């Protein structure tokens, strides 16, 4: 999954979670009539950005026919996500939130302090991406991509998207526990202790790990339903399309 910069506090996560949970019931009510995808084969192309910013190189429209990635492709995928302008934008935003909340007092304020916040946030992105997308998937022969279900009820697709945090595709073509997700994020959290001197307690580590897993799960949900929302929006914007509400 795409590694997001670790937000500095549970309060920040709560605000994001509240926004998602507030929007989702309305989405569920409209999904059966307006967003039910076709039972035919999904389109072969996926939008490579979420909300126009977040890199989405790891989303695939279908699992069949399955073709595993080579080691070089896994590393290229991790690099694309890490060295993308969207990753920089997210790190800049996380740095601003962190400095505003003074989540790492030793970093200080002002330009120099902001630079430290940005450097650590961007480090979270790069280290997390490389371990969850490239290093562990290569060592464990697992596929880091998210394969959309794209058919079925809203709730069945929601359950599928959430479950992909725990279950992934092996290079040999069968499902197995997603060791790469958990080992990759755990490794990234451990390394982060080297540059987060104010947050090295065991509780801080568990918090960062849980936040990243939660963000990855939210990312899966967006990848599953995002293309449907995009199609609906594009249809409404065309002449003769359904009127906007």
Termini Cα gap: 33 Å
For the report, how would you describe the main beta sheet? 3 strands, antiparallel
User: Which structural class fits the helix and strand makeup?
Assistant: mainly alpha
Number of helices: 7
- Approximately how much helix is present in the residues? 55-70%
Tell me how many strands there are. Answer: 7
Order of adjacent strands in the largest pleated sheet? 4-6-7
Oligomer: single chain
Mean pLDDT: 82
Q: SSE string, helix = H, strand = E?
A: HEEEHHHEEHEEHH
Number of domains: 1
Strand content: 5-15%
Tell me the overall shape.
globular
User: Which residues form runs of ≥5 with pLDDT under 50?
Assistant: 9-44
Radius of gyration, Cα only, in angstroms?
A: 19 Å
Walk me through the structure.
With 245 residues, the protein is mostly helical. It has one domain (54-226). 60% of the residues lie in helices and 7% in strands. The protein has seven helices and seven strands; from the N terminus they run αβββαααββαββαα. It has helices at 10-35, 71-82, 85-101, 110-140, 154-163, 179-192, 202-237, and strands spanning 49-50, 54-55, 59-60, 142-143, 146-147, 167-170, 175-177. The strands form three sheets. A three-stranded antiparallel sheet has the order 4-6-7. β1 and β2 form a beta hairpin. The longest helix is centred in the C-terminal third of the chain and has 36 residues, at 202-237. It is globular and about 50 Å long. The protein starts with 9 loop residues before the first helix and ends in an 8-residue tail after the last helix. Residues 1-30 form the signal peptide. It comes from Solibacter usitatus (strain Ellin6076).
């Amino acid at each position: 999954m795409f590694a997001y910069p670790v937000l500095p506090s549970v309060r920040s996560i709560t605000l994001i979670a509240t926004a998602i949970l507030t929007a989702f019931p309305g989405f569920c009510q409209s999904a059966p009539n307006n967003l039910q995808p076709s039972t035919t084969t999904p389109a072969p192309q996926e939008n490579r950005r979420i909300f126009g910013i977040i890199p989405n190189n790891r989303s695939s429209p279908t699992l069949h026919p399955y073709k595993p990635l080579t080691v070089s492709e896994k590393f290229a995928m991790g690099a694309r996500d890490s060295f993308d302008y969207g990753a920089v934008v997210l790190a800049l935003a996380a740095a601003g939130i962190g400095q505003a909340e003074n989540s790492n007092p030793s970093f200080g304020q002002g330009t120099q302090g902001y630079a430290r916040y940005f450097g650590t946030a961007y480090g979270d992105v790069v280290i997390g991406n490389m371990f969850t997308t490239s290093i562990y998937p290569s060592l464990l022969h697992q596929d880091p991509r998210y394969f959309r279900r794209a058919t079925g009820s809203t709730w069945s697709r929601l359950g599928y998207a959430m479950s992909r945090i725990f279950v992934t595709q092996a290079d040999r073509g069968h499902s197995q526990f997603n060791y790469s997700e958990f080992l990759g994020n755990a490794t990234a959290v451990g390394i982060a202790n080297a540059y987060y001197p104010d947050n090295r307690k065991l509780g801080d580590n568990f918090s960062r790990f849980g936040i990243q897993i939660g963000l990855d799960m939210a990312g899966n949900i967006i990848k599953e339903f995002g293309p449907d929302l995009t199609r609906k929006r594009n249809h409404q914007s065309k002449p003769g399309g359904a009127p906007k509400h």
